[in-house]
Amino acid sequence: MTGLGFAGFSLPMSSELSAVEVAAFYREHLTGIRIAGTFFLFCAAFMMLFAAAISAQLQRIEGRVTPWVFVQIMGGVMGNLPFALTGIIWSAAAFRPDRPPEILQAMNDIAVLALELPAPTAIIQFLGIIFVVLGDRSPNPIFPKWVAYLNIIVAILFLPGFAGGIFVTSKAMDWNGFLSYSMPGMASSTWVLLMSVALMRAVHRTAEHNDR
User: Fold this and answer.
1) Using an 8 Å Cβ cutoff, are 141 and 201 in contact?
2) What's the Cα-to-Cα distance from 184 to each of 88, 174, 178, 189, 198, rounded to whole Å?
3) Quick one: angle between helices 145-166 and 119-134, nearest 10?
């Protein structure tokens, strides 16, 4: 992630690092970690706005009774609050880098787990989108069906991140491993890109309809 690049590393630190090694890293990258923490907070805020924009379009499909719209927006909020929490914890750890190494290691553990464990709440957001899009029987659907299929695939790809946060038994499932971090991260980036395209098209169609 770009935010991690500011801190001087492209992936989370391995869970195998000792407390002394984690503390040394924080002391060597204080400014970068603080910038990364701030970046994460802004990203979380943007994603909440993104969830609200998606809900506005889903509302047009569901009408007045909107249970899945509420599910989507709550999943968007709950899935991104831990993301913001990661930035806050990293900033707090870098604020007093002279703490005992064991304390810095514990804070880093919490930050990484907050980043990787919220997969279930993020999947709730995807479910809201999936059910509304698949349930749209109108002749001119607001979202095409591929949007639902995209969310199904991304929801599945998010699951290893949750499992990797708890069951660190191999390099691929370590915090900086492919299954627990890289794959969900790439799925998330792809989701934002493709959902942005679908959302812009939906807004454009709405504007054209209102102009008629």
Assistant:
1) no
2) 22, 13, 8, 9, 21
3) 160
For residues 54 and 81, what is the distance between their CA atoms, to the nearest angstrom? Answer: 18
Q: Examine the pLDDT at 107 and tell me if it is beyond 80.
A: yes
The predicted model scores a pTM of: 0.85
Instruction: Say what the pLDDT of residue 46 is.
Output: 92
| 106: amino acid identity, one letter | A
How does DSSP assign 73-123, residue by residue? HHHHHHHHHHHHHHHHHHHHHHH-TTS-HHHHHHHHHHHHHHHHTTHHHHH
165 and 113 Cβ atoms separated by less than 8 Å:
yes
Per-residue pLDDT of 2-41, as tens digits, reads 456 656 666 678 888 899 999 998 888 888 888 888 888 9
Amino acid sitting at position 71: V
User: What's the pLDDT score for residue 192?
Assistant: 94
How far CA 22 is from CA of 12, 113, 199, in Å, comes to 11, 15, 41
Task: Say how far apart CA 127 and CA 77 lie, in whole Å.
Answer: 14
